[in-house]
UniProtKB/TrEMBL annotation:
Keywords: Disulfide bond, Glycoprotein, Immunoglobulin domain, Membrane, Signal, Transmembrane, Transmembrane helix. It comes from the Eukaryota. Residues 1-21 form the signal peptide. InterPro entries: Ig-like_dom, Ig-like_dom_sf, Ig-like_fold, Ig_I-set, Ig_sub, Ig_sub2, IgSF_CEA-related. Residues 170-255, 263-343 form the Ig-like domain. This is Ig-like domain-containing protein. The lineage of its organism: Eukaryota, Metazoa, Chordata, Craniata, Vertebrata. The chain crosses the membrane at residues 358-380. The keyword Disulfide bond applies.
Amino acid sequence: MELPALRLLLLLLLSSGLTVSQEDILPHEPIKVLVGKDLSIQTLLSKPAFTFIIWNFNSNGEQTHVATLGPAGLNVNDPYKSRGVNITTDGHLTVKALTPADNGQYSINVVDSKGSTKTGEIDVKVIVSQRHFSTLTVTSVHRSDWSGLCSAPCPTHDDTEERPLQPHKPISGVKMTGPSGKLFAGNSSANLSCEAAKGSVTQVVWLKDGSALSSRAVVAADQRSVLIDPLQKEDNGEYTCTMSNAASKESAKVKLMVICERPEPVQITAESEVEVTDRVVLDCSAASVPPANYTWKFNGTKQPITTSQYVIEKAVYSNTGIYTCEAYNALTGKTSSKTHTISVKAEGELDEGLSDGAIAGIVIGVLAAVAVAIGLFFYCRQKVPVASPY
Ligand SMILES: *[C@@H]1O[C@H](CO)[C@@H](O)[C@H](O)[C@H]1NC(C)=O
Ligand SMILES: *[C@@H]1O[C@H](CO)[C@@H](O)[C@H](O)[C@H]1NC(C)=O
Ligand SMILES: *[C@@H]1O[C@H](CO)[C@@H](O)[C@H](O)[C@H]1NC(C)=O
Ligand SMILES: *[C@@H]1O[C@H](CO)[C@@H](O)[C@H](O)[C@H]1NC(C)=O
Ligand SMILES: *[C@@H]1O[C@H](CO)[C@@H](O)[C@H](O)[C@H]1NC(C)=O
């Protein structure tokens, strides 16, 4: 690409008119690279549709263009011409032989043909090792950046990027282990750890349900494990670790299911008055983990329905009565229930629009649902200890 065009593009990116997506496209943990070793920043993108992929380097408030991959191929900015820079179509940036001056933030812009842009940033810490100087110096890295896991003085880190220079062996046999047994919100913890049977791992990326981990998750200094303590209900989900080196990457997954102790309140949403031949839907919801098993009763008699919805395709007069939804949480062994009364009226008996009473009922119902949701949220949050154990 011609340089003026590139400048214009960069200018466009700096102006705010473009849509910028908030999707995570880079891992959150900083990358640590020993001085002299190569930088390899993998994105979380897989075969993105793009017109341009632009990498910039930010240090001391100044931005330097590193390189752009565009329709005409790779364009490397002058200062980086002899640095072995490459960008793959996945956005993977490589820069050879880092110096302390390469310490800083790297940012990526992925621009598609409609001008919409995905952006991401990642910190790169260039580590000056013992072999080069008499004492271990960490260039602009504070000890607290390493990890929350070691409270005593952290062990010296000479482990980052130690192996390379020989060709990377492909990674295989990646396995993640997680906690076994029941996990209770507020009083259980999880240590997820990831291992590769073969290959030298240079980068580990952790994700939960495809996005960044929560801020309560602590990634170990060697990035091989993640500790969540205590677990909260929001920690439910699928965790992925992706181990990679320049030659390959492989992922492993583990699902965590965190149980919120309290029997979850049950709500039924349905109309109270319907006309004959109307379709009636009773919606029973219980914010339960694992999903509840539902049973329904009509006037006290069990019905052959096990879903959260009870549907009457065409109401008849004898459908008038009391409906009970019971939600059973198999893990906590708790059941909660709720009743709802429906009365079936003659056709045309109910007004076209909603009566004031019905509107008030809906408003109250919505408020009650919101109140229950808020109550549940705070209930689970309350159990968070005030002081962290570290
Ligand atoms: C850059 O990466 C692409 C895609 O992996 C590869 O085909 C190309 O050979 C690389 N270029 C250099 C100079 O390494
Ligand atoms: C965690 O909660 C469960 C359920 O209430 C309880 O049985 C268990 O004793 C609690 N464990 C601790 C360590 O508090
Ligand atoms: C988590 O598990 C891994 C592998 O078993 C272990 O190396 C690590 O020390 C554990 N972390 C904590 C905080 O227990
Ligand atoms: C609850 O539902 C699940 C999934 O439908 C089923 O496997 C399980 O047997 C049910 N448990 C009870 C107690 O009905
Ligand atoms: C169900 O109960 C309601 C209210 O008690 C009653 O009016 C209705 O007739 C009953 N319906 C049947 C089919 O038993």
